[in-house]
Amino acid sequence: MANKSVAFHRIYVWEFPVRMYHWVNALCVTVLIVTGFLIGKPVAISYAGEAYQQYWFGTVRFIHFVTAFIFFFNFLVRIYWGFVGNEFARWQNFLPFKSNQMKEMGEVLKVDILQTDVKGKISVGHNALAGLIYFLSFLVFLFQSVTGFALYSSMSSSFLPGLFKWVVPLMGGDFAVRQWHHMFMWFFVVFILIHVYLVFYHDYVEGRGTTSSMIGGWKFEKESDGN
Question: Angle at the Cα of 142 (from 138 to 200), degrees rounded to 5?
Fold first, then answer.
């Protein structure tokens, strides 16, 4: 039986700003989910001492607010890099306007859901389906930033939160904004679970270094098949 060999060549896909954005964003989202859940449903922690000495909930809120600022400015850097980064980082990868991107989305859905073998060529950067999902997640990032700063504006005199004071009356009051903000927190929970699974799954079925590429930046593209 003949051995089938496949040659690969290395491609530098993810530049350092993209990789840095990814890991800072991952850390921020994790912290925001944990602290946001505690803010929405506080846990009673009691110990012997005066009430004014128990400031753990204030600390949780402080961590949430500081992380939100880091998250927001990190997000702005990614928006900027979508215009100046390499071909794999640019915004045209996130919107499937081309027929080949639509075809690739169908191929990826078959691989992800039906677990078929990869038959067609899948983009070495974000595949078309992943790009679209990431674009939708960016819209959620923006929504969470706007509603979060709107809620914070009532207790802060800072310039940035003050820009979003108009959001609260527009959305029907503080309670409504808080409910929408909390509801979209669960989007992040579901997104993380699916994202981590698919990263490892595509690393397995494609064999192109999907997981390690977000550390070193390099991926592997198939060159040719031979006997």
Answer: 30
C-alpha–C-alpha distance, residues 21 and 27, integer Å: 10
Alpha-carbon distance of 18 to 3, in angstroms, equals 38
What integer is the mean pLDDT of 26-44? 91
CA 69 to the chain's CA centroid: 16
- Residue 123 confidence (pLDDT): 84
Q: Are the C-beta atoms of 138 and 74 separated by less than 8 Å?
A: no
* pLDDT tens by residue, 67-89: 999 999 999 999 999 999 999 99
Question: What domains are there in the chain, each with its CATH number?
Answer: 8-44+71-226 (1.20.950.20)
Long-range CB contacts (within 8 A, 24+) of 26-30: 28/67, 28/68, 28/70, 28/71, 28/74, 29/71, 29/188, 29/192, 30/192
The amino acid at residue 14 is: W
Please report which confidence band the pLDDT of residue 58 belongs to, taking 50, 70 and 90 as the band edges. Answer: confident
Give the H/E segment covering residue 224: strand 218-226
Q: Is 0.90 topped by the overall pTM?
A: no
Q: CA-CA distance, 218 to 211, in Å (whole number)?
A: 10
Running DSSP on this structure, what letter comes out for residue 207? -
Q: At what angle do helices 99-113 and 174-206 cross, to 10 degrees?
A: 80
The SS3 call for residue 89 is coil
The Cα 156–Cα 65 span in angstroms is 11
d(CA 219, CA 66): 34
